[in-house]
Amino acid sequence: MSPPGVFLISSSAVAPLPPKPPNSPPQLDVKLISRRNAVVLLSFVAPLFPALHHPSPASAFSLGISGPKQWLKEQKKKSAKFLLAPVDASRNSLQAAYLLLMKSGTEFSEKELDEIQSLLKSAARDCVPQDRNSFVQFQSKTGVEVCTFQLVVNNASSLLDDKDPIKLEAESKLTDVIRCFASLNGMTSELDIQVASNRQKIADALMDTVSSLNNFEQGVKDCLET
């Protein structure tokens, strides 16, 4: 009887070597195991090493293997700062316009008025149709998406389903921020900034836009899970 864990192959399972032809050179005395017997042998050995057959999911996980969707999510997280750069730039433009608007004194030069309007128009990122130049308007009419904030949402939510609550919330915040920019730029064009009460109205609308922009930024971050 063989010791536990040791498997013996019977002599009947081993094919005998063919007889040596006369005057043949010396050969190694090797015992050959038939293919069938080798398979039988492996069937005994395989249960002793199950990891060779089917690696466990835990093993695959420990190697850091992940699906393409998860990989893309991680890449989006890493590029979040770059993706949100236009939002940050718009916020800086709004803050600069606010400082100009609330400066001491009652008179604004023509240059200062133009600078305020330029800052607000730049902050809107081509998302207000009335403020687009002719080339941007042409692009939008040909089906090209020109609103930078819309492109940001599209990128951040590209891995989410169309009816995902997080994506729908981000799109709702996008609508709100565009509405705020349209209202702010409209007030700036229609009201006389030289009048103190009008400046205050514009300043209040400007701060509402900053708040809406912050909410929009958070909606994008939620899509990115950052």
Essential attributes:
226 residues; mainly alpha; two-stranded antiparallel sheet; 60% helix; elongated
Number of strands: 2
Structural class: mainly alpha
- Count helical runs: 10
Question: Could you say which overall geometry the principal axes of the C-alpha atoms support?
Answer: elongated
Query: What gap, in angstroms, lies between the N and C termini?
Result: 65 Å
- Poorly predicted regions: 5-15, 28-36, 38-65
Into which percent range does the helicity of residues fall?
A: 55-70%
Mean pLDDT: 77
Rg calc = 37 Å
In percent, how much strand structure appears in the residues? under 5%
Please provide a written account of the structure:
α6 runs antiparallel to α9. The longest helix has 29 residues. The protein is 60% helix and 2% strand. About 21% of the residues have low confidence.
Task: Please outline the helices and strands.
Layout: E1 14-15, E2 32-33, H1 35-45, H2 57-62, H3 68-78, H4 80-83, H5 85-101, H6 110-123, H7 134-141, H8 148-156, H9 165-190, H10 196-224
Antiparallel strand pairs: 1-2
Helix pairs in contact: 5-6, 5-10, 6-9, 9-10
How do you describe this structure in short?
This protein has 226 residues and is mainly α. Helix content is 60%, strand content 2%. Mean pLDDT is 77; it is low at 5-15, 28-36 and 38-65.
